[in-house]
Amino acid sequence: MIRFHNVLAALALAAFVAIPPLAAQASGPFGLVDALGRTVRFEQTPTRIVMTNKAVFMIADAAYLFPEASSRIVALGNTKQGKYSFAADYDPSFATKLALDNTAGPEQIAAANPDAVVLKSSLASGLGKSIESLGIPAVYLDLETPEQYERDLGILGSLFRNEKRALELIALYKEKAGAIIKALSGLDDAGKPKVLILYYTDQGGTVSFNVPPFGWIQTTLVAMGGGIPVWIDAKLGQGWTKVSVEQVAAWDPDNVFVIAYTADPLAVIERLKADPQWAALRASSQGGILPFPGDYYSWDQPDARWPLGLAWVAKKLQPELLAGLDLPAEIRSFYRLFYGMNDAAFARLVAPKLPAELR
User: Fold this and answer.
1) Could you state, in order of their start, the residue ranges of all structural domains in the chain?
2) Which of 92, 94, 95, 100 minimizes the C-alpha distance to 51?
3) Taking phi first (over 0 means left), then psi (-120 to 50 degrees means alpha), and beta for anything else, what does residue 161 get?
4) How many CA atoms lie within 13 A of 335 on its CB side?
5) pLDDT per residue of the chain (359 residues) written in tens, 0 to 9
6) Taking the domain 180-324, which CATH number applies?
7) Which of 348, 345, 356 is nearest to 15 (CA)?
8) Closest of 353, 358, 357, 355 to residue 80, by C-alpha
9) Which residues contact 231 (CB under 8 A, 6 or more apart)?
10) Does 180-324 match 24-161 at the fold level?
């Protein structure tokens, strides 16, 4: 079993929406180094930016941390994961943008006349190569871990010519994670519950439960949040790995966090509790099977909201050490500091999408 008490230190780190004013912009040629270590050069500041394809909502959510995003993003893929699109609610100019399918090819993307296309780095050898063959600069981001988030915010800061905002954001992320790390710094493994993350899906009409790879942010949030991921000794693939209820029982976790991206995790848990196999689990009898919360999107993901997921996990796993953490206040603070969202907009847009205990 890998010990996690050292992992915490290693991972340290308008009336509608009140969008901050734009900073003074640099002009002229410049270059940036993207997530693949490539230097991408521009003759001038890109003012027509396209984002689409895999995990586009995560890319867009990171971009909207910068005040320039609203005016410079001209085309977006589908930013819904379930019912909601944060970009559609947050960006007053969203309706004017070209809507792209998330399978849009290079010709459709080129039709938006982009100065730059921002994509996940995993798309470089396919879609990215085709886009670049048309003479369109592609900028690649990872946005998978807290460390990559810090680096990729720097890349976006260069793309938007707003390095000052990038540094502010990096400091905010470090502050949010650092507060949790400091509160839990005295913990050793004996004081940590055994925790299981389960992703529920019923795609194709078949129900399955899955665990994430060790390097994914879901595992990181458990380790940073004061728990021991019980599945790390399992034989895992590169993506979600299916597990049986028998395997869950063998792990015998104290807490199970259920993720459901396109379903109601509370409803999933109610169905589990009605199943004798699940009801017999220690986590079930102790009230330790919990839905992973979210608002527009689930907070377990490598989205801009990952500090909210960390705060929630830590509060649930180590309530005594985080007795002073006011989660509803933390959520409001996040939207104010990261997205410049005023209280009225938060109450209208975000609060209704939160679980009742977090409003």
Assistant:
1) 24-161, 180-324
2) 100
3) left
4) 23
5) 333 434 433 443 333 344 444 444 567 899 999 999 999 999 999 999 999 998 999 999 999 999 999 999 999 999 999 899 999 999 999 999 999 998 999 999 999 999 999 999 999 999 999 999 999 999 999 999 999 999 999 999 999 999 999 999 999 999 999 999 999 999 999 999 999 999 999 888 888 999 999 889 999 999 999 999 999 888 787 899 999 999 999 999 999 999 999 888 999 999 888 889 888 898 988 889 999 999 999 999 999 999 999 999 999 999 999 999 999 999 999 999 999 999 999 999 999 999 999 99
6) 3.40.50.1980
7) 345
8) 353
9) 196, 197, 211, 243, 251
10) yes
Tell me which DSSP letter residue 60 carries. H
Q: Which among 139, 169, 184 has a CA at the least distance from the CA of 12?
A: 184
> What are phi and psi for residue 259, nearest 5 degrees?
-105, 135
Q: Which stretches does DSSP call E strand in the chain?
A: 30-33, 39-42, 49-51, 73-76, 98-99, 116-120, 138-141, 194-201, 208-211, 228-229, 241-243, 255-259, 289-291
What separation, in Å, do the N-terminal and C-terminal C-alpha atoms of the chain show?
Answer: 38
pTM for the model? 0.90
Parallel, antiparallel, or unpaired: how do β-strands 208-211 and 194-201 relate? antiparallel
Residue 91 CA: distances (Å) to CA of 63, 69, 172, 239: 11, 9, 22, 32
What dotted CATH number matches 24-161? 3.40.50.1980
- Residue 67 structure tokens: 């005040």
